[in-house]
Structures are given as C-alpha cells and as structure tokens.
TrEMBL record:
This is YegS/DAGK C-terminal domain-containing protein. It comes from the Eukaryota. It comes from Rubroshorea leprosula. GO terms for molecular function: lipid kinase activity; phosphotransferase activity, alcohol group as acceptor. Pfam families: YegS_C.
Amino acid sequence: MAKSLLDAVGQPCAASNAIFSVIRGHKRSLDVATIVQGETRFFSVLMLAWGLVADIDIESEKYRWMGSARIDFYGLQRILQLRLYSGHISFVPAPGFENYGEPASYSDESTTRQNPSQEQALKFQHHGYQGPNVELEKLDWRTISGPFVSVWLHNVPWGGEETMAAPNAKFSDGYLDLIVTKDIPKLSLLSLMTQLNNGNHVKSPHVLYLKVKAFVLEPGPRVDDETKEGIIDSDGEVLARGKGTYNCDQKALMTYNKLQITVDQGLATLFSPI
C-alpha cells in the first residue's frame, strides 16, 4: 500500500516518505472488498490470489531465512513444476470489459459452507460492518472456466516494492483489477514473471486483464492430482487451505470452496502524499 501511494507521486518507497505523508495529513479514499463465504467475512484492501501467486506467497514461507530472495527462488521452482487448477470464476465486468468470458447468472449456492471452528468469531462479526448491500442476482455476470495457472485480484497497483501487479488499478474507482493466466508455456511464464516490476506482464497474450465490480471464485483441485487442492490468499493472510496444501492441518478462516467478493467504493480513508 505504501509503495502504491508513494509511487503515484514519484516518491521512493521509504519509511521517511511514508511518515512525512502522515504528518502532512493529506487523505484519499480507498475501496474495500468484502469477501464472503456463508456468514464468514473478510475485509480486504490489497489483493486476493489463488493458484501460482498464492502458492508462491504462502509456500515460500518455508524459505523465509533467505530474505526477499525466497520469492524469486520459490517462484522459479513453482514455474518449473507448474500446477494447473480446475475451477470457475464469475464476475460483473466494469464498462468496456463486457466481452470477457461467457454470459452467466448469479447463484449463491455453496457459499454457505463455512468453518465450524469460527462460530464465536461469527457471532462477534454480526455486530460490525457486514459489507455492501448489493442485489447480485440483478447484475450482468460473465464466467470463465479453468484450468487456471493463476487468478489474482488487485485493489492497488503494487503488490510489493518490486511487483506492479495491476498497473491500471485505482484507489477508489469502485472496481478490482482481475489478472487471469490460463494456458501458457513455461518459458513464456518465466518471461512474464520478469516483467512484474513494470506491469508489462498484463500486455501478454496469455494474460486476461480487466476490471470487475463483483467476483465469485469456485476453486477446484489440481489437474495433475485431484486429491490435492490449492490455497486462497488475501492481503498476505491464508483464507483457505485445500487438501494436501502446505500446512493444510492449520485452521483457516474459510473452507476451500466457493466465495464471493463485492466492492465498497471509497469506504476507507488513507493518509496520502497529496
């Protein structure tokens, strides 16, 4: 988030610049995404990932002793042993992106499944903000079927100091930027990953890049081994761990199943350089 704010005004991503931004007191609005599965909610301001990006982000934790190099090291490992995931994504496209995917209708079936260990947390959540009140069934939905290499939703341009995940993302436009990778040769994927530092990866013919107002993820198992599933990651936190994943015995907020995302435009406020 700091990188996205400072880069927007041409300032280096440094703690001193961030501190001066807070001292000056300038503010800007920020969209907030509400991720829902049954009665369970998670509020996201950065991103959601499933597939390659989530696997690299979470599974590379085992190499944290390597410092920031762990991402590059494990990313190369994951590309060489590439995983494909079956599943479906559905979305409400922003104006100008209506030709992506196939027409679909909204259904909230299977979003009621939740983690029974979270009952007390759910009771508490009912006293707080529940997310935007949107009649999703009245919106124009599109769908894309897998298999997928990666599905990545972004709220701001930068996913890290060296990763411009969504170059066209805005802080409060009311949309999330969706980056989808499906069929891609390993060499092309390796080349694509080297372009993450400047955002040129979204220009690849192997990448779908569009803006969405609402989103539904129906994650499936790995294509090569249906006994193994994937990881769903949001803002650096594991939302769900499927069967056979890294640390899959640890409890997660949600189950590896269908979830939906809606966007509240400008709900949060940030200190900003200008």
